[in-house]
Amino acid sequence: MWGGRTGALLRVWGLWPAGVRGRRPLGYNAASLAGNNSPQCWNCGGPGVPKRGDGFFCPQCRALQPPDLTRDYFSLMDCNRAFGVDTAKLQNRYQQLQRLVHPDFFSQRSQTEKDFSEKHATLVNDAYKTLLAPLSRGLYLLKLHGVEIPEGTDYAMDQQFLMEIMEINEKLAEAQSEAAMKEIESIVRAKQKELSDNVSKAFEQGSLVDVDLRSHV
Questions:
Q1: Are 61 and 41 in contact (CB under 8 A)?
Q2: Name one GO cellular component term (predicted).
Q3: CATH 1.10.287.110 fits 73-145, yes or no
């Protein structure tokens, strides 16, 4: 039930290029500890931290633990798994995690912890950037629902919608004053909001098949 013109809708909303680069999985050298279901601390062997909790450090020896690569970005960034995200809350969470795991704070720690810190920081950065932008957030949500849009894929857009884009481009070319530019900006922002609302509703309903790409300006 997911699919149809999903890619076109999300790309137009974000005004991004059609190609979307994939991300390479993070690797580990320390005995593939990330993804290991064992709750034991790698350093002291004591009881580790819950996989879904925010305890990044062993409660016994305070050693930094490896990232949980099975944890999705929404959970990591303490956001509801939805297209609508509170960006202020997201930014605060990002800053909180950076204060916990940034490599600068581990310069005097063991090499293992230095490595884990770098991987934590990379994961947090990727999660933040992905959830901050509407397009990448929407594509990530689709991926979590088992739908991936291959790089370079583009879906046919509604002809009326394409005509509206052409009209906006013509207005931009003909704009001779700041007032005219502001009017065009207002039109584009209204269209973005409409498309964003459409995408959000589609995710809530569990289907993007019936989303109408046309925007009534």
A1: yes
A2: mitochondrion
A3: yes
